[in-house]
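Worked example (supplementary).
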Amino acid sequence: MQNRPLTPTLVLLAALALGWIALSYCTASPYYILLLTLVPIWALLGVSWNLFSGYSGLISFGHGAFFGLGAYAVMIGLTRFNLSPWFGLPLAGVLGALAGAAIGWPTFRLRGNYFALAMLAYPLMMAYFTGWAGYQELSVPLHREAPVWFMQFTDTHAYVLIAVVLLLSGVLISLAVERSRFGMSLMAMKQNELAAEAAGIDTRLWKLRAMMISGAIAAIAGGLYAVVVLVVTPSSVFGLVVSAQAMILVMFGGAGTIWGPLIGAAVLVPLGETLQANLGAILPGIQGVLYGVAVIAVVLIAPEGIYWKLRDQRRTAHIERPAPPPPAAVETIAATAQGEMLLEIDGLGKFFGGVAAVQGLTFSVREHEVLGIIGPNGAGKTTLFNLLCGVVTPSTGSIRYAGQSIGGLAPNRIARLRIGRTFQVVRAFPRMSVLENVVVGAYAHHATDADAWNAAARAVEQVGLTPYASAAAGSLTNRELRLMELARALAGNPRLLLLDEPLAGLSASDTDELIAVVRRLPSQGITVAIIEHTMQAMVGLVDRFVVLDQGQLLADGLPADVMRQRAVIEAYLGRNWEAKDAAA
Amino acid sequence: MNALIEQFVQVLAAGLTAGAIYGLTCVGLALIFGIMRVINFAQGDFIMVGMYLTVWIASRLGIFGDVAPFISALLVAPLMFTAGAALHRFLISRTTGLRAVGLSGDGHQAQLILTLGVALILQNGALIVMGSSPVSIVSHLSSSAWEIPLLIDEDSTLFLNQARTLAALVSVVVAMGLFRLIRSTELGKSLRAAADNPEAATYVGIDVSRAHRIAFGLGAAIAGVAGGLLVLTTPAQPFVGTDYIIIMYAGVVLGGIGSITGAFWGGMVIGLVQQISTLVLPLQLQNATVFLVFVLILLLRPQGLFGRSAERA
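After joint prediction of all chains, the assembly is encoded as:
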């Protein structure tokens, strides 16, 4: 999100922080000051949740684990070791980060709802352990001799100040993450983990980093909570309501933006606390009911939260689409001399259970060649690409690329060797601009973010989408989306580019345009392999065809030769056609 | 040695009886998940509601004596069925099926969060309505036991708590009734068809949203009955559902997600693990072992121990 100005955001944040502190000085009531402290603390927990779940899309039901860990770390430090919270809070942060790594590493093996449920188990487990360890209830011992050293201020405005400063730091960290390759990588994962891996993003590593930062922030929030409320019990910091609150505040405000947790906390926390204070005596669970109602309302009315709902309403009013560019002049491209062997596949096979998806494949690709891989549905074309990209590991045989064996490497490692790919179904990030969509593919291959943005801009130009560079991807046509995906793969500066049915769903004229773009690639040093199931469109484009049928290599040769082969005709048109042909 | 054996047999019996009831709770959750692919977060709180309803009905059926709690537990079923079906009709169905198109993860995430909201409302609503002090059924069955002599020596005896044992038997009967319903009736067939391939089921004339509504209602009814059986030995309090959430998920995952019979055996194993762990671990960590088992299964053998493999995406 480099191309959005940062200054207004910072000014607004500073104004909000100062305004909040000023507001606290308008009241001397301990109750309101406590409320003004709790809002930023819960917002900080929300920021932590958002940093992990909001950007990565992996829902965590277990952030109470970090919050409670921080609260107990500060409390045990205080009561057992006489440790000042000034040191206890950073310690809580370190423990939170370690817990993030320890919890994240095994749990990332799970996806979707299973991940969410497994996360739920951690805080509940920790609640039982703290109870068993004899920490059923811990309260802050009074230290009248050194109140400031032990964060026991007589003027409780100081707590508001500390909470706001910590929250501001948390928001600035989020902002830095959001605007860097870190955030872009997380958001890319949220949309499509496979596509992100294929773009060279090490998804597990980024998730782990996000979880560690998130764990640290949540633990600090928990530690400060303990200092402010003076008493902690397993259920007050590890309880389901804590984990749920982290999520609900963000979902309510809007996930995946720094404003989400701030809006959520500013609305729901005061509302909940006020209800609790006024009605808590007769309706003790009113706060929980409020959160329940809030989350149901959000899911039904504005599933993506208030921030996005408002923003989308404002945006849809005036979406401008730039005028389409004039059609490019038809250019003739001199055939590029083909070079060395780039890819050598030998005896490649993949079995799922007892079923052979591909079997005994042997063929090779030369540098600067355009290879068409065709075959009927179920021929094993996509499995072949998945093998080449490391999405699945080969059962038999070898894949050598530029003299190096790559069979079984992780997808992001293979992407770093400059093998790019596109997918059958276009995976766009609808809210991000075309340029932002493309830059995701550039990060893995460029050391600095500035280089990545330059590479992205070049790739967008290569496919002729420059006029649309700042348009939201959600507003593109199918043709433009295909071109954008091609640009994303090109931004990774590939040496070998794998295109999976790039022509699917395009009209004849759109097809011609895409083919024109692909035809220019070999002269730019890119070797191309294209999957299609129709031959017609590809005949003028490719140098050579490889035909697959039922997982096996059927033919390999020049287009004109391949199309005459009996076996190919049989695979495509069936035996009857052949018989008719013979009769004629 | 004999004392050890006696202790072990005692724990085994406790595990089997607890396991049978857990098995029933797991069957309810698995039914909803297997047919609708919805993970119902509020299932534990349905159990809690079942507990309170049973206590309330039993207090009005005093003339039936010791049998009153069991009758009440079964009477909870139609109430919970209606409530569950209504909940599905007005809330859950709005994030499943066609309406879910375009939501991330086909609405599964939305459903999970929606049921979390329901769980929060039920828990805290119960706190408002029922208060925080635990409520239980006073029945002399709960405090009496059958004494079965073990044949290893003269004075070894197995004590079977009567309430718990009867509850376990009722659980098995209810679970078997449900298996029959799913396997051999028209209704069961349409439920299974709706689960296997909702689109194809629609083409052969099955009302899929009705099937989902019935499945959700049945799941809620089973949770209610299980709650009614649990309250014979465990007091009801507003947040008791949370204790059962993990037990249920552990059982369902253990049994293989989507398999209803597997879920019963999964729950049985959880009951045994939980009780046997008391031989070596302090009582407070009883539930922590269940969580540990849960996380270990998810990590090591996500397709479950008994069931067919399930997609994990």
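Two points are worth noting when inspecting this output. Chain A has two domains: 7-266, 341-583. Chain A has a mean pLDDT of 83.
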